[in-house]
């Protein structure tokens, strides 16, 4: 199984990238690629820029990456209750190639934040809109209070209940 995993965050220290990477490591036998959305940075989307630039090569490459995957894990960072600007921009450009951005791929959607809310608001937004973008969401999981529940040294969850929930979610892929 070709498994594509990434954080919907452009932070180099992204806790969601750490979570997505850990989650991907739990999928037995998967050929894992951890994508960094910084590699797909484009000008802020506007219709004017689309008229000027068409479908930028980076958006086409991102769309192709999704197309090549058998399954996808995304972990969403939450900024002011919503997507990070970096992810939303990439998503908007890619949706102009084809609204079916996720190409019916089986997906597990995760989210985490340092606070008790665990980025659950952005996760709910991503799950709620998934059918419009051809995302076959198999499971979702929010990890609250990241630094209490994730061991930074071993780069693994240390809360057994959350670990069980994560493994159950991934088993759906
Ligand atoms: C502009 C901004 C807005 C934020 N808004 C939220 C929020 O609405 N909910 C939340 O749980 N955390 C919020 N945070 C804290 C983030 O969850 C935290 O920075 C986290 O590390 C982001 O994930 P990342 O490390 O994967 O980028 C915000 C952080 C920033 C910089």
Task: Tell me about this structure.
With 173 residues, this protein is of the alpha/beta class. It has helices at 15-25, 47-53, 57-68, 85-95, 120-129, 146-149, 160-171, and strands spanning 2-8, 31-35, 71-76, 105-112, 135-143, 150-151, 156-157. Strands 2-1-3-4-5 form a five-stranded parallel β-sheet, sandwiched between helices. A two-stranded antiparallel ribbon has the order 6-7. Strand 1, helix 1 and strand 2 form a beta-alpha-beta unit. The protein starts with a strand and ends with a helix. The relative contact order is 0.18. The model has no long low-confidence stretch (mean pLDDT 98).
- The SSE order reads EHEHHEHEHEHEEH
Radius of gyration: 15 Å
Cα(first) to Cα(last) distance is 10 Å
Please provide the count of β strands. 7
What profile does the largest beta sheet have? Answer: 5 strands, parallel
Dominant shape:
globular
- The percent range for strand residues is 15-25%
Based on secondary structure, the structural category is alpha/beta
Mean pLDDT: 98
Helix content: 25-40%
Bound molecules: flavin mononucleotide
Largest sheet, spatial ordering of strands: 2-1-3-4-5
Low-confidence stretches: none
Number of helices: 7
Brief rundown of the structure:
By secondary structure, the chain is an alpha/beta fold.
Task: Give the arrangement of secondary structure elements.
Blueprint: E1 2-8, H1 15-25, E2 31-35, H2 47-53, H3 57-68, E3 71-76, H4 85-95, E4 105-112, H5 120-129, E5 135-143, H6 146-149, E6 150-151, E7 156-157, H7 160-171
Parallel strand pairs: 1-2, 1-3, 3-4, 4-5
Antiparallel strand pairs: 6-7
């Amino acid at each position: 199984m070709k498994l594509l995993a990434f954080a919907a965050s452009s932070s180099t220290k992204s806790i969601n990238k750490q979570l997505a990477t850990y989650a991907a490591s739990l999928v037995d036998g998967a050929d894992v690629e951890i994508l960094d959305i910084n590699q797909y940075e484009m000008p802020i989307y506007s219709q004017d820029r689309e008229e000027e630039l068409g479908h930028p090569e980076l958006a086409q490459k991102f769309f192709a990456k999704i197309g090549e995957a058998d399954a996808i894990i995304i972990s969403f960072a939450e900024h002011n209750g919503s997507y990070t600007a970096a992810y939303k921009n990439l998503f908007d450009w890619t949706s102009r190639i084809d609204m079916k951005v996720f190409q019916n791929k089986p997906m597990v959607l995760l989210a985490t934040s340092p606070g008790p809310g665990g980025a659950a608001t952005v996760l709910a937004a991503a799950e709620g809109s998934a059918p419009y973008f051809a995302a076959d969401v198999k499971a979702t999981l929010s990890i609250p209070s990241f630094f209490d529940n994730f061991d930074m040294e071993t780069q693994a969850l240390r809360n057994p209940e959350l670990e069980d929930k994560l493994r159950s979610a991934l088993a759906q892929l």
